[in-house]
Amino acid sequence: MSNTSNIFQPMRLIQRTDGSYANSGPLAGTRRFGDPDRKLLCGPTPWGELVAVNMDTGNIAYRKTLGVSDALPAGMQDTGRPSSGGVVLTASGLTFVGGTDDFRFRAFATATGEKLWEIKLPSSVETTPITYLGADGRQFVTVVSTGGGLTGRQVTNDEIIAFALPKP
Question: Architecture of 2-164 per CATH?
Answer without folding.
Answer: Beta Barrel (2.40)
